[in-house]
Amino acid sequence: MLEDLEKFLKEIITKFEELAVPIMSFLDGHWQSRITEYISAHDLFDEGHVRNARAAGIDLVAEETPAPEWVKLLFGL
Fold first, then answer.
1. Across the 77 residues of the chain, what is the mean pLDDT of every consecutive 10-residue run?
2. Which residue, 38, 41, 64, 72, is the most exposed by fewest CB within 10 angstroms?
3. Which structural domain, as residue segments, surrounds residue 42?
């Protein structure tokens, strides 16, 4: 998984350099869509994950946490 994250980060850096746009434009555009895709594809928090964590002695509790106000403003949420 670490190798996958490193590959993703290299992709993001390369795209940022390729587009040569201001950082806020990049974050609001390409980065937002790609990070959403990446997180959705790598979200392992399901019932199996919870069971495995409990078997290892870790008690996970899933809860909705609202995004901070600055994140909502930045990404138009």
1. 88 96 91 85 74 85 69 69
2. 64
3. 2-75
**DSSP per-residue string spanning the chain:** -HHHHHHHHHHHHHHHHHHT--HHHHIIIIIHHHHHHHHHHH---SHHHHHHHHHTT--------PPPHHHHHHHT-
**Number of domains the chain is built from:** 1
Q: Taking each helix axis from N to C terminus, what angle separates 32-42 and 2-19, rounded to the nearest 10 degrees?
A: 170
Q: Specify the pLDDT at position 44.
A: 64
CA-nearest of 47, 64, 43, 63 to 55 is 47
